[in-house]
């Protein structure tokens, strides 16, 4: 790995990271400000939710069998942010950033210059992967700070254990799709194609997860979706099963290694 290249890749990614992280942190803090109102009206809120069809719950990442948890701060933030809005925003960030690592160099016509750096190809790609990882960590940590600040300011109940487990859950989720994004970028010559592949795969996984929750006959589909092991509500409650983030981390690392292999064997023409 080349630290000068890591620093350059971080600089190239800094404004994208900043705006995604800042926007999400602001949104999270804003959502926490509504919690006191929700807490005062939680009985009416739960009764109202029970009137909606299960399909709507599933689309927004909510398990309708756990309606009682909606009254908690963890349940409220899951329903308002971490069940749908956060993963969608995080996916946009890692897919657009991850698919740029190789494909964008080809599109810009700078691949020859990039490859002319006198270090192994593996070091070139791992430098950009490390920069992407740093962006993921910044995105997650700013979300955590906003959540903790909002909980403190507006009376939300979340423990240090819950914050740590949530950080692990969110980070591993983005690492999984970030690894897939770098793999697609190593295989494609256009960033749009690479982003389309990963975005389509993420959408397919999401739909499989929704369908698996709607019908008993489709429960086997859960095994084909990374959203099955994305469980921020359990994390905020400090009850996250550790096999879930570990599985996502393994997927991300395997994809990152596959990206290295594909990049090393590829004949790149800018």
Describe the structure in your own words.
The structure is a single chain. With 270 residues, the protein is mostly helical. It has helices at 3-32, 35-40, 42-49, 54-59, 73-82, 85-98, 103-108, 111-115, 121-154, 160-187, 191-214, 232-236, 243-265. Helix 6 runs antiparallel to helix 9 (121-154). 42% of the residues are buried. The mean pLDDT is 86.
Q: Which descriptors would you attach to this protein?
A:
13 helices; mainly alpha; 270 residues
Topology:
Layout: H1 3-32, H2 35-40, H3 42-49, H4 54-59, H5 73-82, H6 85-98, H7 103-108, H8 111-115, H9 121-154, H10 160-187, H11 191-214, H12 232-236, H13 243-265
Global geometry: globular
Order of helices and strands: HHHHHHHHHHHHH
Q: Compute the number of strand runs.
A: 0
Beta-strand percent range: under 5%
The number of helical runs is 13
Mean residue pLDDT = 86
The low-confidence parts are none
Q: How helical, in percent, are the residues?
A: over 70%
C-alpha end-to-end distance? 23 Å
Alpha carbon gyration radius: 20 Å
Structural class, by secondary structure, is mainly alpha
Biggest beta sheet attributes = none
């Amino acid at each position: 790995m080349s630290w000068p290249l890591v620093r350059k890749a971080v600089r190239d990614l800094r404004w994208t990271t900043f705006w995604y992280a800042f926007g999400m942190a602001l949104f999270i803090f804003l959502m926490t400000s509504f919690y006191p109102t929700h807490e005062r009206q939680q009985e009416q809120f739960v009764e109202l939710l029970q009137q909606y069809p299960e399909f709507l719950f599933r689309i927004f990442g909510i398990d309708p069998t756990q309606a009682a948890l909606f009254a908690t701060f963890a349940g409220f933030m899951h329903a308002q942010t971490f069940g749908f809005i956060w993963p969608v925003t995080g996916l946009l960030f890692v897919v657009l950033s991850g698919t740029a690592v190789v494909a964008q160099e080809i599109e810009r016509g700078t691949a020859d210059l990039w490859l002319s750096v006198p270090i192994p190809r593996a070091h070139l790609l791992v430098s950009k992967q490390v920069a992407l990882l740093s962006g993921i960590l910044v995105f997650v940590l700013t979300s955590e700070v906003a959540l903790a600040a909002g909980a403190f300011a507006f009376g939300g109940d979340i423990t240090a254990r819950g914050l740590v487990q949530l950080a692990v859950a969110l980070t591993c989720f983005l690492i999984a799709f970030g690894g897939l994004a770098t793999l697609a970028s190593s295989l494609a010559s256009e960033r749009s194609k690479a982003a389309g592949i990963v975005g389509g795969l993420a959408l397919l996984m999401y739909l499989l997860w929704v369908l698996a929750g709607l019908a008993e006959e489709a429960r086997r589909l859960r095994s084909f979706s990374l959203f099955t092991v994305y469980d921020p509500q359990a994390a905020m409650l400090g009850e996250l099963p550790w096999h879930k983030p570990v599985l996502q981390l393994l997927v991300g690392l395997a994809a990152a290694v596959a990206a290295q292999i594909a990049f090393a064997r590829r004949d790149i023409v800018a």
